[in-house]
Amino acid sequence: MAHFMDIHKNMKGLTKDQLLEAHNQDLANEQGTGVHFQKAWGDPTSGWVFCLSEGPNREAIQQVHRRSGHPADEIFEVPVSVE
Amino acid sequence: MAHFMDIHKNMKGLTKDQLLEAHNQDLANEQGTGVHFQKAWGDPTSGWVFCLSEGPNREAIQQVHRRSGHPADEIFEVPVSVE
User: Fold this and answer.
1) What structural domains and CATH numbers belong to chain B?
2) How many residue pairs bridge chain A and chain B with CB atoms within 8 Å of each other?
3) What is the pLDDT of residues B41-79, one digit of tens each?
4) Whole-prediction pTM value?
5) Per the CB 3.0–4.6 Å rule, which of A14, A48, B26, B32 could disulfide with B37?
6) Inter-chain residue contact B20 with A82, CB threshold 8 Å
């Protein structure tokens, strides 16, 4: 499985509850796709949200986000990491 | 402590060892600043690197990155998260 960081740029005013709801939609819609959304971080001031996921490829990530009604603006594959 | 996601946009060809070295520089330079760099993810193809940290404010994050010789291009405070 590859790892991805995707960015949404239009979520100004986002609350914790809204981020949780969006994440739960992704978790419901990822079933059977090989995608798993792991974490998400949001900046309500700029409206940028970052989602960390794993999955087979970039398009699979976007397809789950589309089903949830919030396609990503950019998706980066992140094969190197330090945790 | 606040949480931050920062982005570096000019690290094409980045290797795992280089990311680890850059992260270790940040860990050395954050001492006494109240900043802690937690994780980092890199995309060698686009050259984008994402760093997750905590600290007192955006400027403190940038100051550590500057000491390490790799100032961030953008820094977002991310007060909402799902993990």
Assistant:
1) 2-77 (3.30.70.3090)
2) 75
3) 999 999 999 999 999 999 999 999 999 999 999 999 999
4) 0.97
5) B26
6) yes
